[in-house]
Amino acid sequence: MKLAPILDPNARKPGPKPAQVDLHKVFFIGTAIWLLLGIICLALVIAGRHMVSALVVCIAGMIIGILLLVWEHFNRWNYRRLANQKQ
């Protein structure tokens, strides 16, 4: 193990450029999956199965997904700007 990069920050290799990503797609697909699973769990609860805890987890996943979509909407400019910076 080389100690030069640890002791001297100027000896470090440059880090990779940040990748341009679309978090809206990721958060939307994840929320849609939670919605689908929530519908399945709701059908099982109505059918008499004891899946209430799984339904609560699906609802929590949907709420978190919606909150992440709102966050992404307001912060899209920031994370896209960081990916476009030249190093």
How is this structure best summarized?
With 87 residues, the chain is an all-alpha fold.
Give a description of the structure.
By secondary structure, the protein is mostly helical. The chain has one domain. 70% of the residues lie in helices and 0% in strands. The two termini are 26 Å apart. 6% of the residues are buried.
Supply Rg.
Answer: 21 Å
- What structural class do the secondary elements suggest? mainly alpha
Topology order in helix (H) and strand (E) letters: HHH
State the low-pLDDT regions, or none.
Answer: none
Largest sheet: none
The proportion of strand residues reads: under 5%
* Large-scale geometry: elongated
Helical stretch tally: 3
Q: How far is it from the N-terminal to the C-terminal residue, by CA? A: 26 Å
Approximate helicity band: over 70%
Overall average pLDDT? 87
Tally of individual domains: 1
Assembly state of the chains shown: single chain
Topology, number of strands: 0
Topology record:
Layout: H1 4-7, H2 23-46, H3 52-84
Helix pairs in contact: 2-3
Keywords: Membrane, Transmembrane, Transmembrane helix
Protein name: DUF2530 domain-containing protein
Transmembrane segments: 26-46, 52-71
